[in-house]
Fold:
Amino acid sequence: MFIKFKVNGDDYEIDVPPAIRLIDILRDHLGLTGTKEGCGEGECGTCTVIMDSKSVNSCLVIASQIRGKEILTVEGLAEDGKLDALQESFIRNGAVQCGYCTPGMLMAAKALLMERSDPTEDEIRGAISGNLCRCTGYSKIVQAIKDVA
Amino acid sequence: MFKHIGHTHPVHDATQKVMGEVIYASDMKLHNMLYAKLLLSPIAHGRILSIDSSRAEKLPGVVKVFSHLNSPDKLYSRYRIIPDQVNCREDERIFTDKVRFVGDRVAAVVARSFDVAVKAISLIHVQYEKLPALVTVEQALENKSVKIHASGNLLYEYDLKYGEKEPLSEDHITIETTTQTQKMHHAAMENHAYMANFDSSGKLTIWSSCQGVYGVRTILADLLNLTYNNVRVIKAPIGGSFGGKQEAIFEPLVAFMSKDLRRPVKLALNREEAIVATMTRPATKSTITTAVSKYGKIKSCDVATLFDAGGYATSSIDNGYAMAKKISRLYSIPYYSHKCKIVYTNTPVAGGARGWGGPEIVAPFEIHMDAVAKALEIDPVELRVRNLVHPGDVDKATNFSLGNARIIECLQRGAEAFQWTKRYSRGCVNSSRYKKGVGVACAAHKNGMYGGFPEHSTMTIKMNEDGSFILNGCLHEVGCGTITSIGLIAAEVLDVPLDMITVSEADTENSPYDFGSYGSRVTYICGECARQTAERVKDRILECASTIMQTPREYLSAEDGCVFRIDREQERLTYREVATIAKTVNNRDIVVTHTYHGRSNPGAYGAHFAEVEVDSGTGMVKVTDYLAVHDVGRAINPGMVEGQIHGSVQMGIGYALYEEIKISGSGKVIDNSFKNYHIVNAPDMPNVRVLLIEAGGDDGPFEAKSIGEAATIPSAPAVINALNSALGTSLSDMPITPDKILAALNCN
Amino acid sequence: MDNIQVMTPESLPELIDALNMATPDSRLIAGGTDLLILMREGRVKCDMLIDLSGVGDMNCIRAENGYTVIGANTTFTDLRNSQMIRDSALCLYLAAGTVGSLQIRNRATIGGNIANGSPAGDSLPALLILDAKIMILNSKGEIKELTLEKLLIDSGKTALSYDEVIVAVKFLTPGSIYRSTFVKIGSRTTVTIAKLSIAIGGDYDVEKNILNGVKIALGSVGRTALRFSAMETLLDGKEISTRLIDSFCKSLSHEIESAISGRTSMPYKREAVKAIASEAIESLQGNKVGFDC
Structure:
């Protein structure tokens, strides 16, 4: 199936099996390995990307469903090498340890902040409830998001 | 006081991580690579009668199907770090001919694409002769005629004792408690992944997210009959390990297949495989009996443990034995005995998990302490104060000093900060639906392996011509900030900005020898090695500067990346000048290799305080407040110390309340997915307050001690003690899930 | 997944065409959050997917002739963003907020939740008490209506034939004195499959403290989500005293005990149901939001 879609502002037109997962398109076809696979079933959130302004698990979206869509991945956060405020906040607040949950966490946070400014702590924790982290205990991640909100 | 250490820094590759630039093993691509997929046993115990892979082999894109039919039958232990290591029962094969747990390695397909490999797996037909599945330790001990391994189901047994048992006076009571701890999934966000490449020069290179490259090398080289110099193990970036990647679980398999095919082979596990087929925290059952005086002094303690090793031995002998060495680091008990049976079962394989025996025995012990406190009507904090070790005490089990053991200070300062006395009440369980309670737990861990295992580390620091440095050690960054900490230590000594020091990661071809990230040794041993090596480099710099400046060494000092005369400060050279002139004019180099030998193993201590709110209608537990107090000696990187504590508590709450790899009667794993294996997520995680006690006094770098494992150990019992306090119950069958809570409440 | 064909209708006529190509081995995919996992686990065989996500007509929430009509492609996030749903069908609003994580809610659809037919499906108890009717399109282009109760046959099984698709859900828009709520227990507070859930609704007479026309449904206590009509009479038209709530909960507990008597989860659910039922009733009285996330 020929599909046309945008990733990080770039236009793509590729021919892929129609039921291939978005995560595989990103990682294998486009070489964007920042998006990770931690469970393949929408539970861990490491595959989170933003599609049409909403956070989604890219392991549960198939090719036919991304036609005409605009997708933002972790690679699209920084502009010309300048880090996004969220990325800087994560670094500054010690919200990064092993880094495996980080891309998905950033995208979930970015989607939240795209939708509302000044979220409460509960809203932040709710927005990342589908992003598991085993290293940080979440507090510094929540603080990092709060700092930017 | 310090320029670099004692200040918070991010992990060294934080920028790359937030950019999504770090290439983990599963992200790797090599030219001409192949993809592997595993076929794991669907039954818990059985002999493989036949494997028909003909249809799989015919599938276009399939390169080869491997099984016991075409792989070495040499037995090995995935736990072995050094040649001839004791307590490494060699009982596994790359591919087994007898399956011993659901998830055992039956076969693998290597294909040109991952999708083809997956499809091919479904075309392999395996016939098994089913054998009775012994899924509990009790079953395995009872059914001696059903042998999981030829050596019998009892893998190992020990009976450790120290001290003198006093005859019991009337003044004593005896308390007995039994606690079951469960199999737990390490749940690193990154599932295990490897890339192996056997090239035409006869060299094997393997990228593995592992905690000890030299251990992996030992196993692979010996197993595949390669000389050690022809096996290169490169530590890949790790997306979390917590002990789950510290044994060579799949490296032998991937390495063998690559060697056979002479092409790069990648194996990346999915979550189910990581839960079932790698390793789990061991399930244990401990009965603790103490004789305690009315004043609350423990006079004697007898422990009997059953330890579930799962289908293969791996580290279980040492891991089980480690349980016996934990309590004596924490409490001063005149007589302690620990009997333990370490037993094979037809269940997923047990292995080391953060705390390495600590959580498994300390959770039961801290629950026991609360039972003692309840029986004697003594405040739980006070009871512990009366029994905890003091600074300078000797560990009665090993006769080594516990160093500046500040656990009592942790407990007392913590109790004050937590307002323990005000919040703790016994016997006032109110009648409302939501019941609150507080609990406390203490823990001790160690700093390295001195006393039980050789303990040394070697590092090289070389100075570049421009005054920057490269520190070459065999370091394994697991996400906790190791590289940064080592860099900070060196930066502090050399007095240069952190970004002037590059700290390399483990690679057997380039790194000096080091045992790896085990036993909480990295800060204490590797960190001190880095400090001493840096001191020696500084000496060398001063020596070279002395020659260049024609000034006695004693007149010179190094500060801020410069060397200057103490009496005439304007006479100075930058590090760059020293290095360049030394190398190019004076024909000398500034490079130091130093081996540090550990010579002590103090305790690392923590006291945790938890408040919970239990919904007695549904059994759901919410952790509403948490304070962790830790005796860390010195916090090299305080923000990361906090981060380690936060993460430890997340793991401990899961251990206490949610997480369990449950096994059915036939040996199947019931919780084989994050859909039903729940780890604490952001909404359920409390903010953890941290209080650090930095009293120094031991041999670590700038007197630092370990944290990552020490913080995991007290967390589960703090939560369990809090909920038992809230409900007036004595629950100890971990995890304490809502159904167990309601069952207990409805019994009362 | 490489060899699976995917049809991508973008209108109802195209959807009918696609249904004509369907076979017993083809599947409908909307959000994909249930189906893709089942396919990956090998629990569902599939040679062709009909991707519904492009059928724009199926994504809507509107009032029509006294009914609230929700298109099958409406996501749970859409439901959470709907003032109409929040005002008139709070039980559904609350249930929608408990579905998975935000990432899941952004994709999972109400049509998919119904068609998946899980006994733990979060929207189902709410839809049952709303007397929801399911609009089903078939390959002949006919639209038939089926009550949700008739549609849910067994665990994971609905009455849908392979050439039928849910296009919308509708229920009579409740009046202004209608109150409803939904309470769920899982293994943790958020992002969890329901271990037990309850939806209760009725017209609440504030002065007399009476619920009229009470409807009660539970999830995760049977092969499908279930209406508990016998329980409804215990509450209906009676003054809601503490005593009534107490005796109601006890009776409900006995019902659960017999409904799932053989199950290992019975002792827990038999007790926990009392807590969530009383919580639900009390929230109806106080018009408090019950379980929210």
Notes: Residues 288-293 of chain C have pLDDT under 50 and may be disordered. The radius of gyration of chain C is 19 Å.
